[in-house]
């Protein structure tokens, strides 16, 4: 497999965690979203992913984009360890939390949107994340064990950790979200979350390396 990724992209990080958890080795091709006006806008990358976003994954003779679609494919073709619970109710809760983050928080504060917002971008990102986290904190109080849904790592956790990193980057006050904070801390102790971390990627700038 070949993963097209940017070290700081939270969507790329979700996929890096999934690949690490499932023990899938891959080659990484960095796509710098800032340099040269954004390498994702090159004709070469547009041919790979017409949405001009990372991640993209070449695997099994196909090219996939959209992080959750990629994770679902990995889950269906390489089911161990599983990232979706067998119980239908828990499985639905995992998908709900993953969608809450992947559709309801992250797109509102991604690079393309913030460019349009301009000077107020930090305040905008803080507000988008805070309103999403207020809802998420309530949801997790009903679903969480050690992790987002019970005590097994799931697709929901793959979305949570990168979004908390975004929150920290935009200096969101995490005080009101003790459940999110506790789960995030537990997940960051796991090897798959460490090796996939933005501070440990081939394209991480020297000053941000762990």
UniProtKB/TrEMBL annotation:
Record flagged with keyword Iron: no
Gene3D superfamilies (alphabetical): 1.20.1050.10, Glutaredoxin
Pathway: Amino-acid degradation; L-phenylalanine degradation; acetoacetate and fumarate from L-phenylalanine: step 5/6
Obligatory cofactor(s): glutathione
Pfam families: GST_C_3, GST_N_2
Ranges for domain GST N-terminal: 1-82
Reaction(s) catalysed (UniProt annotation): RX + glutathione = an S-substituted glutathione + a halide anion + H(+); 4-maleylacetoacetate = 4-fumarylacetoacetate
Domain GST C-terminal, residue spans: 87-206
EC number: 2.5.1.18, 5.2.1.2
Keywords: Cytoplasm, Isomerase, Phenylalanine catabolism, Transferase, Tyrosine catabolism
Biological process annotations from GO: glutathione metabolic process; L-phenylalanine catabolic process; L-tyrosine catabolic process
Predominant place of localization: cytoplasm
GO MF assignments: glutathione transferase activity; maleylacetoacetate isomerase activity
Annotated Gene Ontology cellular component terms: mitochondrion
Compartments where found: Cytoplasm
Keyword check for Endoplasmic reticulum: no
Family per record: Belongs to the GST superfamily. Zeta family.
NCBIfam families membership: maiA
Name of this protein: Maleylacetoacetate isomerase
Native source organism of the sequence: Mionectes macconnelli (McConnell's flycatcher)
